[in-house]
Amino acid sequence: MDSRLSKDQENAIEIVFEQNKGEVTAEQLLDIVKACGEDNPLYKVFEWDDTAAARQYRLSQARWILRASRVNFRPEGELETVQIRRTINLQASDEKMVYVRVEDALKSKEYVEQMKRQCENVLDSWFEKWRPLLGEKFVQEMLSERMKSPSANSPRSKTA
Asked: Where are the domains positioned within the chain?
């Protein structure tokens, strides 16, 4: 599936927002598209085969489980442990995306390079999202503050 929507699909979403006073839930969007059927440009974005949709949903649950699993980790040179995700999603040598335990990924030069690229991509995406909305000064100050003192709710927070 392409990661971008067509102009017609974008227009269909805008119409849904206009009809719902600027606030839409995922359930509302699904119900509207389903009711309109194939006439709605968003219809083909959804998986309507229940068997295939069930499998996709279960795969989504499996990915969540792999992302939700946590482990205590002590970064090199640090005295305290932090709680981090147990796995990271990386590209294996056969081009497949796989979940790798962080401790194993850190032993691989190729995986470490992928993690660095992912970090750059996430930061670029984050800046692209928030800078136009909140301003460059706020975004830079917030990032600077987080680098000095991660919030208590952060996965980087210290473990007991």
From this structure: 7-46, 66-148
